[in-house]
Amino acid sequence: MKQIDQNFKELMKSYQPEKSPGDFTVNVMNRIYAETNRISEYKPVLNKWFLRIVYAIIGGFVGYSMFNTGTESASPGGSKFFSWLPKVDLSAAADAGDKITGVLGGLPQYVVVIFLSATFLLLLDQWILRRKQVL
Amino acid sequence: MNPKDDHYYIDQVKNGKLSAFSYLVEKYRDMVYGLSLKMLKNTEDAEELAQDTFVKAFQSIGTYRGSSKFSTWLYRIAYNGAITQLRKRKVELYSLDEQRLSDQDELDIANRLTEIDQEALAGSLKKAMATLPADDQVLITLFYYEDQRVEDIAQITGLSESNVKVKIHRARKKMYSFLKENLEEAVFNVL
């Protein structure tokens, strides 16, 4: 290095550069932690519309099973009340329901356990999401 | 290898230990802030830019391969950020008056300056620095205070090495001119 540069370098040792604010490192690290949390923010596996459709199908199936079993109504008065309404032929749906019930009834036990576990995990997934949103 | 050099902490951050990044922030905070302040001339903007620089560095630390010094890489992020801000403000960066001082004049001034007290010298240097355009302040600080090589400064600023040398040379002369005037005024005041 040239003498002239060396001399100026010596002079510049007396230079006092601007200091960053005292809480600078804390602020930067807070931003980095916030950034990292945002990146790893929890997202449900399945979106809410898909789950609503699944719930509707399950709900519909359960409802149909409940109201389509037995030959007599639990409340005869109600039955009379609705007797004037035109009857809908649900025999096709009933056949389909029977078939589904038959298929489900024939499933091995471990498949049912897997199915129930998956349902439980989906519900857990939704529950965690709700808690995250509240926090 | 010194286990406590920058690369040790960079590897730790890459391996998921976020807190290791605070060492790097602590080490370079003043330099990055100083560079930002020289460019933007506003403490709030400078702090924001300096913080952004570290956050960007953290986000892209995976792409840092170690081919250049970490400080060079970091200063380049800060410098580019400042240039972007200044372009938004449409501030003219490059203006410089060439000073007519010989090398011997500079040596004489340097010798005389070593005789004045440290506090006065620090004040004069600060004032002399303020007479320079923003980019020249950065070049002078990086070369004479931070000991960065011309190649590294060229990488940080995106200027050619010869351009960096010329600009440093001119900026130093301009600072010496100011220091000379300041020195003569001080002597005149004493008399």
TrEMBL record, chain A:
Keywords: Membrane, Transmembrane, Transmembrane helix. The chain crosses the membrane at residues 49-67, 110-129. This is Uncharacterized protein. It comes from Sunxiuqinia dokdonensis.
TrEMBL record, chain B:
Residues 24-90 form the RNA polymerase sigma-70 region domain. Keywords: DNA-binding, Sigma factor, Transcription, Transcription regulation. Residues 124-175 form the RNA polymerase sigma factor 70 region 4 type domain. GO terms for molecular function: DNA binding; sigma factor activity. One of its GO terms (biological process) is DNA-templated transcription initiation. Belongs to the sigma-70 factor family. ECF subfamily. This is RNA polymerase sigma factor.
